[in-house]
Amino acid sequence: MFTAPRARALLAALPFLLPAASALAQSDSCASATPVTQGAYSGSTAAATNDGSADCGSSAASPDLWYRFNSATACGLRVDLCGSAYDTVLSVHTACPGSPANQVACNDDTGGSCGLGSTVLFSVAAGQSYFLRVSGFAGATGAFTLNLSACTPASPTDSCTLARTVAQGTVTDTTLAATNDGSATCGASEFSPDIWFAFTPTDNCPVQVETCGSTFDTVLSVHTSCPGLDANQIVCNDDACPNFNSRVFFNASAGTRYLLRVAGYNGATGNVTLTVQQNCAPPGTDSCSAATELSPGTVQVSTSGATTDGASSCDSGAPGPDVWFRYTPAADCSLRVNTCNSSFDTILSVHTACPGTALNQVACNDDTCAQGSSVLVNATAGAPYYIRLTGFNGAAGTAQVQLRCDPPGTGGPDAYMGELGAMVQLGRLGDTVGCAIDTPLCNAGTDPLDTIVNPDPRHPFFVFNMYRLQNGRLEQVGQSWAKHMFGAAQGDFCGFGCTPYPNGSHLGVGCSDTYGAAFNGTQSIMGPRSEINPWTGAFNYATSHINDPNAPPHTAISHRLQLHDADIDPAQHAGALFFADVYTVTHDDSNHMNSVSHEPVAINGAPGGDWSFDLSGPNSVNGPTINAWPGASLTTIPQTPTADGRCILGVKVTANGNGAWHYEYALYNHDMDRAVQSFSVPVGPGVTLSNMGFSAVRSHDEPFHNNPWPAVRAGGRLTWSTDPYNAGNSSNPIRWGTMYNFRFDATSAPASTTAILGLYKPGDPATLAGATQGPVHCAPDFNADGLVNSQDFFDFLAAFFASSPTADFNLDGLVNSQDFFDFLTAFFAGC
């Protein structure tokens, strides 16, 4: 299957795949130039002499050949030497001998797929002869292919002074025959062919202009006068929407005429779709208590002129002006709000009451999509949610607020991982190999899934993991960095029935795209997991390792799925089963739990050599690998995540046959950004512990250490922990897509109890509780002192009124009156 970038790689080879060009008689003299029309022509300058000059490519003395073109009507003409066998120079002249004095256009290297070939675009006057000079850089000669496009009538929008007047709505045009009539500060478009439009708004409110849907890499700028230059530019954008198209926002004044310039990146041309929108309502409300009621959809808003009426934990620096919206869902849903298409650095937060503060905040985000923000909340029917939009460090401007509320697990895009097909070894360093797995991504949702290339963060991130199941213990033995996806084909690998998206910027509904295992191990497209928020999909390309030109050189295993020989050698692990899994995280995924698949893998080879991995056995199973742990009891913590993700805790208890029991725990962090810093279980008084252990997969190339977690028995609990959070990340928390193991033997049979997870990153709550099994004598012995008495009652009350997770007596994920009644029942029943 081909993604859009892979298709572009194929297009780069097209000059060599096209039918052979026509061969014409070669003219070594401008005066007897060979007539040409639209089409492709071949020739060679190897035996030519010099008969003219041009002012680019150091070609004044180069051997040259000459061709003549004329047209009965005025038009625009594109001529190129793409596909030629040497470093060409192409120039156009109006008379012979050809010289810089009568030169119309000259180009040395086009770059891109044309490489050292040359391209010119120029306007043709009716009845005028144009002389095309084919030469080489600094005297170079060789075989060439001369390509002439159709001579297309020039657009009437080719002049800023004659700019086409447009109203709100969509118009189409083309830059194929345009000349250059201005410049802008972005997109390397200062010399690109450009066309012009004029828009005069009737209201004082923000305007959005976009070229989404155009057929080439556009650059869009807005100017206040002609000629449109950098000095009178208001705003400029290169890539903001799919297919490298552009979008800008600006605050408009009623009655002012604005000049809209559409050009191409680095000289690119094509057909233009231009949409202008001025949406003055709703403006947003400057007060939380009077917040504007929103419906699902998109609104445009400006925070300019607003005051500050709230706060969130994401605020930084000086307080910024904010505006407020309110949404009340009719049914439980996944509430998603984003400001991805905004003109300033936004901050979004969601609150349950007014005034909105960090105390009643349920979600907050600064940067998810470049400087835009995105939040996800599991919303409850009938409950009002107050949405605050402000700017980083006091910034203000225009934004698009997009709101969706999908039924939980349904609606919207749904990244689904299909049948794994291949795993390969790509390198070795000492006793460690670097591997990768294919990524059969399918869209099981109801809307297209974003697959937009960096620097846009709106694309899936894939991670690869390896697990070993041996003697009843499931351990993770390898992990990779995150491979960044770019572009999507539109297959039907999962059999959902594909509705293709028209380009590679999205994966269509029901569609699939599989990148091969070897390609997925390309180190330049892999970045640290720690740079990605697994719950929101937030990622900042500007500060990422993947955008760091000074990153350390790669070894043969850097960033890949790293596996130690001793961990995967079947000879050292008789009877073991191995599992490979692939997990994808992306910002618009409506169901995180089906975004991973695991499959048994057969391993052959020997330490120090090449391992082979066979995934042709049983079919992949959708879901995390911890689900494959036989005989284990699994608990999701928290059961229903809201502002962050979840962990899955597995426990398996077996009798040793000597009066003791072995307790084996595995804690897997699926999509919890805050990570886990500690894990504890109650241990009853008089219980003797032995054979305590801990194991963890090795992190590599990340800003964390791999030190084991020490265990401490105190206060009736056994607790493993790593270093607390600090900005230097000198700790070893359980990050997303990662599983750690804890174990011990105890002289007590298992009973239902509560495990406590301490979270790594600061926030509220500091801990989470979940059901498990542990060596405790009885539940009413709340303080685990071996007695059931009034002190247990008082200790439970203290925990209950503090809303401590230890007071979740019935383990339903809530601390409420039912826990109180259930504790009383157990307390008076005794043990």
Can you describe this structure?
The strands form 13 sheets. Strands 34, 35, 36, 39, 41, 42 and 45 form a seven-stranded antiparallel β-sheet that branches. The chain has a five-stranded mixed β-sheet with strand order 1-3-10-5-8, with no helix packed on it. The protein is mainly β and 831 residues long. Helix 4 (790-801) runs antiparallel to helix 5. The radius of gyration is 32 Å and the shape is globular. Helix content is 5%, strand content 37%. A hairpin with a 5-residue loop joins strand 47 and strand 48. Mean pLDDT is 87; it is low at 1-20.
List keywords for this structure.
mainly beta; globular; single chain; seven-stranded antiparallel beta sheet; 831 residues; 5 helices; disordered N terminus; five-stranded mixed beta sheet
What's this model, at a glance?
This protein is mostly beta strands and 831 residues long. The protein is 5% helix and 37% strand.
* Average predicted local confidence, pLDDT: 87
Helicity range:
under 10%
Indicate the low-confidence ranges by residue numbers: 1-20
Question: Number of DSSP helices?
Answer: 5
- Please state the structural category: mainly beta
Could you tell me how far the N terminus lies from the C terminus, measured between alpha carbons in angstroms?
Answer: 64 Å
How would you describe the shape? globular
Topology:
Elements: H1 4-12, E1 22-23, E2 34-35, E3 39-44, E4 65-70, E5 75-80, E6 88-93, E7 103-107, E8 119-124, E9 129-136, E10 143-148, E11 164-165, E12 169-174, E13 195-199, E14 206-210, E15 218-223, E16 233-237, E17 247-251, E18 258-264, E19 271-278, E20 292-293, E21 297-302, E22 323-327, E23 333-338, E24 346-351, E25 361-365, E26 374-379, E27 385-391, E28 398-406, E29 415-417, E30 423-429, E31 432-437, E32 439-443, E33 449-450, E34 461-470, E35 473-479, E36 482-484, E37 506-507, E38 512-515, H2 517-520, E39 526-527, E40 561-564, H3 565-568, E41 577-585, E42 596-600, E43 602-604, E44 612-614, E45 621-622, E46 633-637, E47 647-655, E48 661-669, E49 676-682, E50 689-696, E51 711-714, E52 717-721, E53 738-746, E54 751-759, E55 767-774, H4 790-801, H5 817-829
Parallel strand pairs: 1-3, 2-4, 11-13, 20-22
Antiparallel strand pairs: 3-10, 4-9, 5-8, 5-10, 6-7, 6-9, 12-19, 13-18, 14-17, 14-19, 15-16, 15-18, 21-28, 22-27, 23-26, 23-28, 24-25, 24-27, 29-32, 30-31, 31-40, 32-38, 33-37, 34-35, 34-36, 34-41, 36-39, 41-42, 42-45, 43-44, 46-47, 47-48, 48-53, 49-52, 49-54, 50-53, 51-52, 54-55
Helix pairs in contact: 4-5
